[in-house]
Amino acid sequence: MNATLKTFMSEKRKWFDTQLSLIFQDAPITPKLKQAMRYSLEAGGKRIRPILIFATLNMLGKNENLGLRTAIGLEMIHTYSLIHDDLPAMDNDDLRRGKPTNHCVFGEATAILAGDGLLTSAFQIIAEDRMLELETRTEMISLLASAAGPEGMVGGQEDDIEAEEKTLSLQDLILVHRRKTGKLLRFPVEAAAVIAKVEKEIYSTLVRYAEHLGLAFQIGDDILDIVGDEKKLGKPIGSDVANHKNTYVSLLGMTGAKEKLSQEIYAAIEQLKRINCESSLLNDLALYLLERTH
Amino acid sequence: MNATLKTFMSEKRKWFDTQLSLIFQDAPITPKLKQAMRYSLEAGGKRIRPILIFATLNMLGKNENLGLRTAIGLEMIHTYSLIHDDLPAMDNDDLRRGKPTNHCVFGEATAILAGDGLLTSAFQIIAEDRMLELETRTEMISLLASAAGPEGMVGGQEDDIEAEEKTLSLQDLILVHRRKTGKLLRFPVEAAAVIAKVEKEIYSTLVRYAEHLGLAFQIGDDILDIVGDEKKLGKPIGSDVANHKNTYVSLLGMTGAKEKLSQEIYAAIEQLKRINCESSLLNDLALYLLERTH
């Protein structure tokens, strides 16, 4: 990974993780529930979504502080989706980020409630974000709910479940993933664009960058589920095959999937050239997603 | 029930149900997920929370239209909480509002997602409510999330689960219920007060009314779980005893619980006298809660 990006990621991640750990520290929440929420929220992970907010704000010449609470809300929603996705009634996974999944530690009922709690708090944190104007807050909540809700991630998860017994076309698989993982990876770039109040044209260009990046991210995950290192990933590989999931690898083969990944990354980078800003962070972030599968 | 209240409730409920049925009608949501969300959302119920918003707005001389989208968001959150509460990992109930519970019809995975989807959409609907000023929207989202989240309802549900094996004191039981059901019954009165921008003192008085009402509502539910009519309730009675739940009846006996219910109702009504407004709707609503257990 490029040295500048590496420093940026590690510094922002450390800062973000510290801020995140303070959020519920003194909140009057039943101990076991608070523990369950914090267990998954503070389990680490790459924090790729928050980093995307900070990197885009940086590129647009804005203080990264302005995106902090939005980033925390977004990470809460990402985390809740993992907790619910891992439940026995869903993917039934035991391991996540190298640790036993939430329901394995706290039981199913508390895991469901911890997810519900994180999802609810995410919107509260943005509604109360005094760093942002009122109009920015309502727009942010609307965007985030749209990306995470039934027209976005939750809908994509339902599609994904229903697709388990079918073989999808490449077109259909892309549609499922655009909702299931794409919209929540597109949101951070949009969030930064909303905070920076960019012109319409730059907004659309950034959204196209994020859409290519999001698709590449999913293809990368599919590849890593076969050739990845369990220790690095923090979860067992091969679960897609075991769950009869449609993946880019099952549809295109390993070579085809890697080719498609590479296409998407370069399509993302191509978009950045249209914006008259120093965009090396977003450029290198895209290249990093390519790198991690090689 | 008082004739004026009866007309008000039946008219507002009809209006609300019609508006509610339009919300997801044309939304681009995966068919099965949309069906699952609408199944529980449109299963009826007394719509007591929306009615409380409308009745309070009416008392404060405001158009009830101003509270419509907040009422829809609130009912979505109430509905999601019922769907998740009925899951096998939680209360494992088969019947709700006279119909099979969500997971019995659509399966556990889709029921979890339908709940997640309703919870997420609730905030979107308020964030996009053009009838309200931006400041009112952010305050509303903050209030609702606080009432529904880990410091409110979700926390109360966790408390409730943990209390199943213990015998609570009356004081502790009241604390659990203040969060589990109280905060979401207090919210509609607060929401109307926020929309009407009432003075601090009236706000506090209304909140006290709502807190007594919320407690009375829960005591009433506990009583009805023993002496209620299964057909009218739409769910089997006796489930509290079967689940070893702490209830006001188990702690105070039936006579004691009815006495406490009556005390709370008259304490609620007492608050209304402090406000210089025509408050007969809220007055009669309180009396109705007393009536339904007799």
UniProtKB/TrEMBL annotation, chains A, B:
Transmembrane segments: none annotated. It holds the Pfam family polyprenyl_synt. Belongs to the FPP/GGPP synthase family. Its cofactor is Mg(2+). The keyword Ribonucleoprotein does not apply. This is Polyprenyl synthetase family protein. NCBIfam families: FPPsyn (NF045485). Keywords: Isoprene biosynthesis, Magnesium, Metal-binding, Transferase. The keyword Magnesium applies.
